[in-house]
C-alpha cells in the first residue's frame, strides 16, 4: 500500500462541480439575465424567492448571489458584480460557508417560530464586514404557519440597511 505525500482531501462530486458564478448555472438563462440586469442597473431587490424542483440549484444560486453582492475584487475596491472574483476575502469565506454576514438556515430542521425570531433578531443589525447581510433560508416551505407569519413581517418591512 503506497501513501502519497500530497493526498487531497475527499470532496463530494456535487461540491466539486458546483457552479461558483452565474456563467456556471446551466438551464437558468432567464434567471441569470434578470439578476445580471439588476446588478448592472443597481436596482437590487431586498429579497429574492427562488423556486423549483429539487436539485435545480436554488441554494447554489443563492450562494452565488451572496458572492456577487459582497465581492470586492482582488484589489479590494469593487462593488457588486456579476462575476465574483473568487479570491477576495468575502468570496472565499462565502464559498467555504464561514462568512459572518451570510447566514444559511435549514428550515427543514428548524421549523418553529422561535427559530425564525432568532433569525429576525439579527436582521436589525448592519453587516459586520461585508457590504450586505444575506440570509439564505433553505427548504422554507417546511416552516410552520406562525413561523411564516413572523418571517413575512420582516420581508414586507425590511430594515433600511
Quick summary:
This protein has 161 residues and is mostly helical. The protein has one domain (13-156): P-loop containing nucleotide triphosphate hydrolases (Rossmann fold, 3-Layer(aba) Sandwich).
Which sequence of SSEs, written as H and E, runs from N to C?
HHHHEHEH
In CATH terms, what is the architecture?
3-Layer(aba) Sandwich
CATH class: Alpha Beta
User: What characteristic shape results from the CA principal axes?
Assistant: globular
Mean pLDDT: 91
Are there runs of 5+ residues with pLDDT below 50, and where?
A: none
CATH-assigned homologous superfamily: P-loop containing nucleotide triphosphate hydrolases
- Counted up, domains total 1
Main pleated sheet: 2 strands, parallel
The tally of helices reads: 6
State the end-to-end distance.
Answer: 57 Å
CATH topology: Rossmann fold
- Strand order, main sheet: write it out: 1-2
Strand content: 5-15%
Q: How many β strands by DSSP?
A: 2
Radius of gyration: 17 Å
Q: Can you give the helix content as a percent range?
A: 25-40%
Plain-language structure description:
The chain is mainly α and 161 residues long. The protein has one domain (13-156): 3-Layer(aba) Sandwich (Rossmann fold). Helices cover 37% and strands 6% of the residues. The protein contains 6 helices and 2 strands. Helix 5 links the parallel strand 1 (102-106) and strand 2. Helix 3 (58-70) packs antiparallel against helix 4 (89-95) and helix 5 runs parallel beside helix 6. The radius of gyration is 17 Å and the shape is globular.
Amino acid at each position: 500500500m503506497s501513501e502519497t505525500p500530497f493526498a487531497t482531501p475527499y470532496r463530494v462530486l456535487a461540491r466539486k462541480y458546483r457552479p461558483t458564478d452565474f456563467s456556471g448555472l446551466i438551464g437558468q438563462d432567464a434567471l441569470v439575465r434578470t439578476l445580471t440586469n439588476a446588478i448592472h442597473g443597481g436596482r437590487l431587490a431586498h429579497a429574492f424567492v427562488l423556486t423549483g424542483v429539487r436539485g435545480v440549484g436554488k441554494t447554489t444560486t443563492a450562494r452565488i448571489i451572496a458572492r456577487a453582492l459582497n465581492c470586492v475584487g482582488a484589489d479590494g475596491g469593487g462593488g457588486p458584480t456579476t462575476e465574483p472574483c473568487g479570491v477576495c476575502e468575502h468570496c472565499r469565506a462565502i464559498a467555504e460557508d464561514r462568512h459572518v454576514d451570510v447566514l444559511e438556515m435549514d428550515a427543514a430542521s428548524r421549523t418553529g417560530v422561535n427559530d425564525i425570531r432568532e433569525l429576525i433578531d439579527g436582521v436589525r443589525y448592519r453587516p459586520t464586514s461585508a457590504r450586505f447581510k444575506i440570509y439564505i433560508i433553505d427548504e422554507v416551505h417546511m416552516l410552520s404557519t406562525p413561523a411564516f407569519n413572523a418571517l413575512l413581517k420582516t420581508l414586507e418591512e425590511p430594515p433600511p440597511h
